[in-house]
Amino acid sequence: MSIKDEVGTQKVFEDEHLIIWEFALEPGATTPCHTHHLDYVFYVLDGTHLEVFDANDEPLGGFDALAGASFAFHCANGELISSDDKGLRVPATHSARNAGPTRYREILVEKKRPSAVA
To answer: Among 17, 19, 64, 98, whose CB has the most other CB atoms within 10 angstroms?
Structure first.
């Protein structure tokens, strides 16, 4: 199985601090399996119900990502852990499926970790 490092549909900005992605997923569509390496937050533009799957395509559950909601995650030891009050925890390597009837869209912002000072 090929695992991608792209976490969005299109990269719209990158500098030494941030990477900003636009992400869209049509009803019934599933993302390629991908791995998150950076802490991130995403803001939902057009909401839906998302189902999440591990690297072996096993279901991990789902959640409602409603328009106007934001979600924040910290990467640690191969997992994504909510850094907000939502209590979500999933493997950093996963895929997601739009289980709703409408197109899903979000803006995802990755925070680049500061480089070590020599």
So the answer is: 98
- For residue 49, give the nearest of 86, 92, 96, 9 by alpha carbon: 96
Q: Which is more confident, 114 or 16?
A: 16
Q: Encoding tokens for residue 74?
A: 């910290």
Q: Where are the domains of the chain?
A: 10-111
Q: Can you tell me the distance from the alpha carbon of 3 to that of 101, in angstroms, rounded to the nearest whole number?
A: 27
**CATH code assigned to 10-111:** 2.60.120.10
Q: How many CB atoms lie within 10 A of CB 2?
A: 6
Identify whether the C-beta of residue 92 lies closer than 8 Å to the C-beta of residue 81: no
What pLDDT, on a 0 to 100 scale, did the predictor assign at position 58?
96
The residues with which 115 forms a beta bridge, in sequence order, are none
Contacts of 118 (CB under 8 A, 6+ apart): none
Amino acid 4 reads K
Average pLDDT, integer, range 100-114: 92
